[in-house]
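Side project, low priority. Logging it here so it doesn't get lost.
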Amino acid sequence: VVCKFLTTHSDGLLAEGSATSWHEETLPQILKAWVSDQKRLPNAAELEQLSRIPRCMQCGKMPATLLCNRCNYAGYCSEACRSSDVQHLKSWECEQVGISAMAISLMYKIGGGPAFEVGQPDLCLGEDIYEGGLQ
């Protein structure tokens, strides 16, 4: 629901919000638009997603809907921004996040870790992971 909402408002409200103070100006406008569209207040998970709309790593616009092809962590607003961010693609951060995501994915596949994919912020880990850790 949140992704569909963001898609319908990406050119108007979110484009305007890219240049304003997030919590004081943009978030209240986004919540007002949400209530107008959905005819209800957002639930806790939706509110969490709406309050953390990612900005483009290259230009700062919202929402960043494209992920880095290498690490799936850095977000971009357009293909032009993604392809022009050569500095990130060559960075140590991009390499390490990509390697870490691959290692966690492999651990899960062989039964040694939680299900995890970078780029899925709504994925919740089970309560047991906080008590027993990775086995």
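Brief comment: The first strand starts at residue 66 and ends at 67.
Revisit when time allows.
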